[in-house]
Amino acid sequence: MIELTDLPSTDATISTVPRWPGTIGEVGVGGPGEPGTFLLSGPGTGSGPESLHGHRGRWGGLPAMDGAQVLALLRAARLDGRGGGGFPVARKVAAALATGGRPVLLVNASESEPASAKDATLCALRPHLVLDGTALLATALGVDEAAVHLHRGADAPLAGIRGAMDERGSAGYDAVSWTVSLGPDRYVSGEASAVAGFAQDGDGRPRFTIAPMALEGPSGRPTVVVNAETVAQLGLLARLGPAAWASLGAGTSPGPRLLTLAGAVDRPGQVVELIGPGTVGDVLFATGSRTPPAAVLVGGFAGTWLTGEEAWQVPWERAALECLGSGPGCGLLGVLPHGACALVETARVVAYLAGESAGQCGTCVAGLPRLAAGMASLAEGSFRRRGLRRMETLGDELLGSGACAHPDGVVRLVRSTLDVFGDDVVRHLAGSPCRGADHPAVLAVPVPYPTGAGPRPAEDFA
Amino acid sequence: MTVLVRIDPTLCRGHAICALYFAEGVELDQWGFGRVVDASPSGRRALRRARRAAAACPNGAVVVNERPDPVPVPVPTAAPVRAGVPVPEGASDHPLVPASGGTDHPTDGPCW
């Protein structure tokens, strides 16, 4: 475990947000159009999607690179997936190429995480950066087709991406034949196999796969599914080169990082870009917080809780977060204020996630509602110690049981809650009134599907 | 020969027949859904039992994937990339990343 007191304090650098270019190692935090940003640099939020003309004016044209050069660039920069899994993009591409088949390229901009908004922000404001990276990835894979997958109802990102595809087509900017794939607005439909499966046959439920999709996707062809932020990073990386791009990050997390703020923050849903080796505290400070909150939900609804003190000091970097049993995930920071109850908040999230099962795998269908019921009774204080042990067993059975990692994510959240808020769990078990019980809801969680009614029907995923 | 036994959880309905035929390789959870604990059975008898379990599953959920060991396919070699990539003025080199090469996996840094 890392000694948090040994970490250098970065308070000095965050009292004013530094302006890039600055000294390497300086921390910058900024939203769309704010100085010091890279992915989000350019016009502000109110200006809508950046035009091809504007994009070209700021970044120049699409860098002329051949496939081997793009692959070498991905390797040198160690670009990892930004959708949550953190899988190295170079390995996906190399695996698909090694099959010798004609790969399918899909950009996943569905952003199922209800509280996350980074991919939507990129598609709505910087669509050409997303498509530039996609075009380069298409070159690496030797294909001339690419599809961007979005959830239905994501109007601003859809308008941004569609408009950008039209502009590029009529300007002859790239040689890619672009399509948009509009899938069901369901949590698990943003999972990579669900995205690839939907593109193949219109069924947006996760698939059971034996081989990795980069070797054989639902269509039988090697299928590379990459997150929208990941390709936007490639668009930036191709302009800056691997060294300069990596220097915008820190250690095990090279490159700039996009984060979405949720919960008790000034502007829930605000997306910021973090430059340099900043901590979660730096990000929260730059967006208006002055003291550590009670706790932070890190990485998404299927993420992990960190206590406010821990979170405030941990660098937003893969190795550091993993030392604390967490990880960057999709870059969500869900802030829990003092006075609110983490068990109550988690119970609401777990109820939502349990209702989002696609109803395909028996253990998920049977187990998640029980886990949700357990969390709910723990939150309201009607729980016994024996129930806690049952929940532990249930977690063991759910882990790795599904075709997708949905149950694993819910178990991870529940376990981290029980770990981090052990004292609260004891108080709740003892039946003492919870001080946070009357606190208004903190995280914006969609209305859960009633779990008593069985899983969602297959039509919900079409 | 590489053998991989898997149970497709989207097809499994908990008939538990796999656990009868391939007892050493499958465990049942509290609802009777199977979970593979020995995905690569060694020995001809174990492999035969796994195949039998696959044939006996009424839902076709048990998959025994037998593949000849893959012939290594040459992966395209990485060309040096620095030459073709303009580095903007003011951007400094950083010791973190070599000009080209590097490994595919980014998680080999020191633990904090």
Secondary structure layout:
The complex is a heterodimer of chains A (about 450) and B (about 110).
Chain A (H helix, E strand, L loop, with lengths): L10 H4 L13 E3 L21 H8 L7 H11 L11 H10 L5 E5 L9 H8 L1 H15 L3 E7 L3 H17 L5 E7 L8 H10 L21 E5 H13 L1 H5 L10 E7 L7 E5 L4 H7 L8 E4 L5 E4 H6 L4 H6 L8 E5 L5 H13 L7 H19 L4 H14 L7 H15 L1 H8 L33
Chain B lengths: L1 E6 L9 H5 L4 E3 L5 E3 L7 H13 L5 E6 L45
Antiparallel strand pairs in B: 1-4, 2-3
What does this entry look like structurally?
- The complex is a heterodimer of chains A (462) and B (112).
- With 462 residues, chain A is of the alpha/beta class.
- Chain A has helices at 11-14, 52-59, 67-77, 89-98, 118-125, 127-141, 155-171, 192-201, 228-240, 242-246, 280-286, 308-313, 318-323, 342-354, 362-380, 385-398, 406-420, 422-429, and strands at 28-30, 104-108, 145-151, 177-183, 223-227, 257-263, 271-275, 295-298, 304-307, 332-336.
- Chain A contains 18 helices and ten strands.
- In chain A, strands 1-7-6-10-8-9 form a six-stranded mixed β-sheet. In chain A, strands 4-3-2-5 form a four-stranded parallel β-sheet, sandwiched between helices.
- In chain A, strand 3 (145-151), helix 7 (155-171) and strand 4 (177-183) form a beta-alpha-beta unit.
- The longest helix of chain A is centred in the C-terminal third of the chain and has 19 residues, at 362-380.
- Chain A starts with 10 loop residues before the first helix and ends in a 33-residue tail after the last helix.
- The model of chain A is unreliable at 1-24 (pLDDT under 50).
- Chain B is α+β, with helices and mostly antiparallel strands.
- Chain B has a domain at 2-67: 2-Layer Sandwich (Alpha-Beta Plaits), CATH 3.30.70.20.
- In chain B, 16% of the residues lie in helices and 16% in strands.
- In chain B, a hairpin with a 5-residue loop joins strand 2 and strand 3.
- Classes of the chains: A alpha/beta (462), B alpha+beta (112).
- The interface between A and B is large, with 64 and 52 residues.
